[in-house]
Write a structure and sequence with these properties.
This protein is α+β, with helices and mostly antiparallel strands. The chain has one domain: Creatine Amidinohydrolase. The chain contains four helices and 15 strands. The strands form four sheets. Strands 8-7-9-14-15 form a five-stranded antiparallel β-sheet. Strands 1, 2, 4 and 5 form a four-stranded antiparallel β-sheet that branches. The protein has a three-stranded antiparallel β-sheet with strand order 3-12-11, with no helix packed on it. Helix 1 runs antiparallel to helix 2. The longest helix has 19 residues. The two termini are 15 Å apart. It binds magnesium ion (MG) (2 copies). One magnesium ion binds next to loops.
Length: 252
């Protein structure tokens, strides 16, 4: 499949950053590492300059979000990783006109048991979401499964940001939220789309240790938890298969 290479390059960029994360490293250095991987493989950065026409286009290859920063943190040479931080790294690569999008969160050195549990629950939520990404299911099956698991662990799911279709552009239909309204609400924000073989999208649980609300900082990008609690984010781009689990395009 043609999208596999974009996904593989994205995964290579994430792997290179994972190996570089350590106390004393700046988020700008991580950005440069990812940019170099993309360059080496003939890919371009999906986030750089995004969205087109915006007065505040994103200025980097990756987003780097520390502790209570959830997503969309802007890499900076002044943001230095400290022992005990958790860092979320998200990267999108464009290759041959197709996009890969993936993210993970990891500890810097030794982290608190609560932070460790948050990472494990969020990564497990991604696995649970991926397991529901099967032909015949609907996007809401993913949403409900992710939400039920995360809340059963005492954490909350973010409402304002969702997984999304990925193909020739980074944000396509369908939206894949990490929660679903109970019952039959009169107003639906999203359609629950039937999954058919060949469709490709990103599943990306965003989990807060505290309350679910978020806000955007004055830099127009960085999303933080409103209550300052820790948060984590894991993401893969997947392709629905005729039978069984999806292909994880952003796995190595
Ligand atoms: Mg992403
Ligand atoms: Mg995404």
């Amino acid at each position: 499949m043609i999208m596999r290479e974009a996904g593989r390059i994205t995964a290579l960029a994430l792997q290179a950053m994972r190996e570089a994360v350590a106390p004393g490293v700046s988020t700008k250095e991580l950005d440069e590492i990812a940019a170099e991987v993309l360059r080496k493989h003939g890919a371009t950065a999906a986030f750089l300059g995004y969205p087109p026409g915006s007065p505040y286009p994103f200025p980097a290859t990756i987003t780097a979000s520390i502790n209570h920063e959830l997503v969309h943190g802007i890499p900076s040479e002044e943001r230095i990783l400290q022992e005990g931080d958790i860092i979320s790294l998200d990267c999108g690569a464009i290759y041959n006109g197709y996009v890969g999008d993936a993210a993970f969160t990891m500890g810097v050195g030794t982290i608190s048991p609560e932070a460790q549990r948050l990472l494990e629950v969020t990564e497990q939520a991604l696995r649970i979401g991926i397991d529901k990404a099967r032909a015949g299911n609907r996007t809401s099956d993913i949403s409900r499964a992710v939400q039920a698991y995360v809340e059963s662990q005492g954490f909350s799911v973010v409402r304002e940001y969702t997984g999304h279709g990925v193909g020739r552009s980074m944000h396509e239909e369908p939206q894949v939220p990490n929660w679903w309204p109970a019952g039959r609400p009169r107003v639906r924000t999203w359609n629950s789309v039937r999954l058919v073989p060949g469709i490709t999208f990103a599943i990306e649980p965003m989990v807060n240790a505290g309350r679910p609300e978020t806000k955007v900082l004055e830099d127009h990008w960085t999303v933080v938890t409103r209550d300052g609690s820790l948060c984590a984010h894991f993401e893969h781009t997947v392709a629905i298969t005729p039978d069984g689990p999806p292909i994880i395009l952003t796995a190595l």
